[in-house]
Design goal:
single chain; alpha/beta; FAD/NAD(P)-binding domain; Guanine Nucleotide Dissociation Inhibitor, domain 1; Guanine Nucleotide Dissociation Inhibitor, domain 2; about 35% helix; binds flavin-adenine dinucleotide
Length: about 500
Amino acid sequence: MKVIVVGAGIGGLSLAALLGKRGHDVTVIEKNEQPGGRARVWEKDGFVFDMGPSWYLMPEIFDHYFEHFGKKTEDFYELIRLNPSYRIFFPDSTLDISADLEENMELFNQLEENGAEKLRKYLDQAQEKYEYLLDGLMYEDLSGILSMLNPKLMAAGWKLSILSNIDKLTKKYFDSERARKILQYSIVFLGGNPKNTPALYSMISHIDFNLGVWYPYGGLGKIVDATFGLAKQYGVDLRFGEEVEDIVIEDKVAKRVITDKGEYEGDIVVSNADYPHSEIDLVDEDYETYSQDYWESKIIAPSAFVLYLGLDKKVDALTHHNVILDHDWVKHFEQIFKEPSWPDEPAYYLCCPSKKDDTVAPEGKENIFVTIPISPGIEDTPEIREAYFDKIVAHMEKVLDTDIKNHVIVKRIFSLNDFADDYNAYKGTAVGLTHTFSQSAFFRPRHKSKKVKNLYYSGQYTHPGIGVPMVLISAEIVADLIEEDYGE
Ligand SMILES: Cc1cc2nc3c(=O)[nH]c(=O)nc-3n(C[C@H](O)[C@H](O)[C@H](O)COP(=O)(O)OP(=O)(O)OC[C@H]3O[C@@H](n4cnc5c(N)ncnc54)[C@H](O)[C@@H]3O)c2cc1C
């Protein structure tokens, strides 16, 4: 079959490689000049920046993906387990989450009475949820069983406590504010806040405390290299710097794709581009599975204010992953989800891969990547960005107790308008659709169009959702759907 894939994010590349391996004739069309989408790499003056993902979690999902090609993860890159997994800067203390669970138990005992026992119980329930999902639901296309009366759905709902949220769950287990925050922080990966993220995602604590935080030596760009390399190896035709403008549908069948450079006929079309863009801009209104009103009614995940900084010195206070929780984050979440505005006192994340990897910065220098979630759709101008840059750097100097501003030798700001321009991201979102109850699992947008026979969607908007491992799973699901519909 001739398959056209719109977009060379990890979702598009990983799917194209699978389809190429299964004997399809695949063309990938990407608007940017580079592969990887949000996970692409930016290099400048000896610094190598991962532009998006920096946490490598759930290594077994990568192993599972590479197995389709008879390969192992180590055939593509060297994985290092980080220790500490990450460092959290609270206003009055700095804590390390260790790769050693016993050390974390001791830490929780210091945070509150019986902290270790409470952590053990919390992680047990997190592990149970993770294993239940991985065994039964993670790799399945769930759109076919969307009925509240479906026994499978009801059993899953009960098991996964989908009606509770992370805020309630952590309050049930822990009294200490710091203990709760440690366990709540990681749900920021899902584009939500502790109150709107279902308790089932406490499984992320099992992922980071038990399965570990890893790093592919050379950076997360190694995942892009791996999927891009596999796609090329299996004969995929990859076209860069070419934007898809229209998916032409006749009589409920996608016939061809029109780009700013030409036309491509196909038997099957898959869009890995942002789902709202794919539907609103590329597909005729009559053939949209979800209307513009649908997207308007959804909780769109935050955009981000991202800084790529090359420093001409080392910063001793940092480890590889650092979370700055110097302010109460309630107001920050309100300024994302309730009263959209630039956060006055943000909580933020700071990655310093040059601590463990001497290929990402020149010797004696530091590669720093800062991410601050901001509301999608707010005003983003060069003046706002520069003022915000000054504010954040001044705050970093206070928390890290060192001069930063005078040591910046490489600087790039990437924010809301860049997400919109570079990736056609709806409202400039960084990661798509927040994982609330009604936007997760069975309720996430479908992998297969409801109205067009041969049109599919892959990537972070679809089940299982946001994050590189999830996007690899979505590629596996779509490849299997295509196989079910058309054979290999
Ligand atoms: C700042 C940031 C930090 C993150 N941190 C982590 C992390 O630590 N760990 C983790 O696992 N995940 C992380 N993520 C999430 C992860 O990066 C994404 O979930 C994943 O990369 C999304 O992949 P995708 O293929 O679905 O989408 P994308 O990467 O967006 O790919 C879609 C592609 O489609 C292209 N496209 C769009 N419109 C068109 C068109 N009309 N024609 C042609 N091409 C088009 C885009 O240019 C893009 O290349 C992070 C994301 C961001 C932004």
